[in-house]
Amino acid sequence: MRIKVCGMREPENVEALLGLPIDYMGFIFYKKSPRNVKKGPLIDWVQKNGKAFNGIARVGVFVNSEIDFILNKVHDYNLDYVQLHGNESAEYCQEIQSFWAISTMRSARLIKVFSVDDEFDFSQTRAYEPHCSYFLFDTKGENAGGNGVKFNWNILESYQGNTPFFLSGGIDPQAAEAIKRLKLNRLYGIDINSRFEIKPGLKDIEKIKPFVAALKN
Question: What is the CB-side half-sphere exposure of residue 73 using CA atoms within 13 A?
């Protein structure tokens, strides 16, 4: 079970989290998010301490962004993945990939987020399969970029695609055992954020430690 911790922003908090056996770390580049990464000390820390990630993938989260904006963040933060959390089309994903195919700039793999409710039609994911390494299923809500609310995980039994996915949406420290019991086709990992915070953008490492240990065991 892969573990992604999203919404990181403070260098000291990032450094503390790197001491845990997680697999992905997310940085949000969306102005309306309370976890938005602004210009400041994080970019300097990331550029000076790239080796500290030691195999932990860096994920940039974007919402309906201009492609140039994404390309610049991939370069500046040495991102390994671009997570698209808006209404981006499959053609949009293809356009990004086409640029990287002919460019010498740093490239990244794509994660497409789908906001899920009881009426979600999983067939809409098919067009994205040629372009995305992973999907992420989150709770449908008012806020783009996450709502911190759990959805009915049983809905995911309807997913028959080939692309592995992350489970997200209101996962809290008590959810480890329930996650381990899930028998879902293509479940690859989980994405945690607001339920493990002291405040937006600052993770409670002491909450994350036992949760990670429970999942990894």
Answer: 25
Going through the chain in order, the beta strands assigned E by DSSP cover: 2-5, 24-28, 57-62, 81-84, 109-116, 134-139, 165-167, 187-192, 197-199, 202-203
What is the dihedral sign for C-alpha 97, 100, 101, 106?
A: negative
Tell me the Cα Rg of the chain.
Answer: 16
Cα–Cα–Cα angle for 1, 82, 187, rounded to 5 degrees: 25
Residues 6+ apart with CB under 8 A from 17: 5, 8, 25, 203, 205, 208
β-partners of residue 2 are: 189
At 104-137, the pLDDT tens digits run 889 999 999 999 999 999 999 999 999 999 999 9
Residue among 211, 215, 147, 208 nearest 8 (CA) = 208
Task: Give the residues across from 135 on adjacent strands.
Answer: 112, 165
Token couple for 54: 């030691």
Token duo for residue 202: 């600052």
Place of tokens 């919402």: 63
